[in-house]
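Q: Could you write out the predicted structure for this multi-component system? I'm mainly interested in how the pieces pack against one another.
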Amino acid sequence: MSRGVEVLLGGNQSTAAGVNAAYGFLRQRSDWTAGCVGLNTQHFLSYKRPIGQLAVFYSFDKNTAITLECAYRTTFEEQQSLRNVVTDFLGNDVSICRSLLTEYLTTYVLPEVRVGREFDASYFAWTMNEICEAAESATFTAIGSRQSRGIPTENTLHRIASTFWRFEKVKSVHVQNYRSELQVNVLLAIEKYDHDLMDELFDAEYDLRTSLNEIVFSFCYTPVGESVNSDVKHPLARALFTR
Amino acid sequence: MAEFAVHIKQADHNQQVALALLQQEPFHDWAINAAFYSAIHLFEAWLYHRGPKHSETDIPRDDKGDLKFSPHAWREKLVTDRLPRHAFKDYRHLKESSETARYLSLPRSAGPGANWTPTGAWEHLSLDDARRMVNNHLASFTKTLDLEYSQFIESIDFESTVGNSAPIVRQTLIRDYSDRQSLMKESLSELRRKYGAGVAEAFRIAAEKKPNTAPQ
């Protein structure tokens, strides 16, 4: 059975409104039946059966009046009781899922939602990779601002970040504009040239270049061993991520 | 911005340097640099008849007349757009490892407290790495470009039969035939019909000097 992630963001809504929007999203799926388990006031676990998939909704960032509803679909055996599924989920997945999503959403998504941008997040599935081996597609939508499109450059930066995030040896990615080209500086935690790693990085780079063909790129992969990331960031460069 | 034949000579020269340096450890890191500069000249030679004639004169300019992109970035875009994925990767292996070999990083991303990898280039890149760059990636890149056909077309003296139209003739022949074998299948009369008497005459003269080396 396929596994995946679907995410629905409700911008500028109360938690309740966001949850309702999320339910509406799920109700459009005729092959699912709806249900809801309240975990606490901030987090909800919703499920739909009988196709063996569990949908989990998280509500984030109540203080900013922005509710993010993340539907996390995973698989479970038909014979499993909902109780067991919920127990397993809470025991194994929820902490990872919450920490990953919270970090990611607050860093990348919330700023976009706040300014009313809508953007395709199919390339951000890496946030869930470690949990459910990633989604084929996912869509982040800032409800209430569907008419606005994200600035392409921001989308581009998200795609670059998500492309390189999956490489464990990539310590950080910085970008900066030079003339009209986009320079991407990738710092690698390697002491020796790693041919296999570079081969994979060039594949990823080629995919970025061909899918974002209107952009003239300049990629640079710098071996920095275990040096401190902040020491190798040019003041004019923008960090997409460091770790 | 050299002519085709000079690019070929320089590419070959640089490749010979690379092969020689592979035998002189620990200077194998410079073999990678030589290999990359061989690849650049090979690609420029490949472009020569396919356009743009020189990548550096093809770089778009902004309203002020300034170059919009650096030469390396623009050349890489041409490599990406014009060559298959495996050739792109060959080129990028050569370029990236050679930049590492020269700089261990690029200064553009460095802050004042940068702490680079503690090894020298000849340690960061092993002799096996250097051999792979020269014997695998440069060789593969050369094979993909298949410049033998371009060299053959370049060797035909079209200047004496069509004058200033010779560059156009060469570009057209390289565009119309994928390799030398497919061109050799054409008869002189067919070439005359397609491209004119001057083109056919140049091939006839070439075949007269070296039988079976040009369409007859």
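A: Regarding packing and overall arrangement: The two ends of chain A are 33 Å apart (CA to CA).
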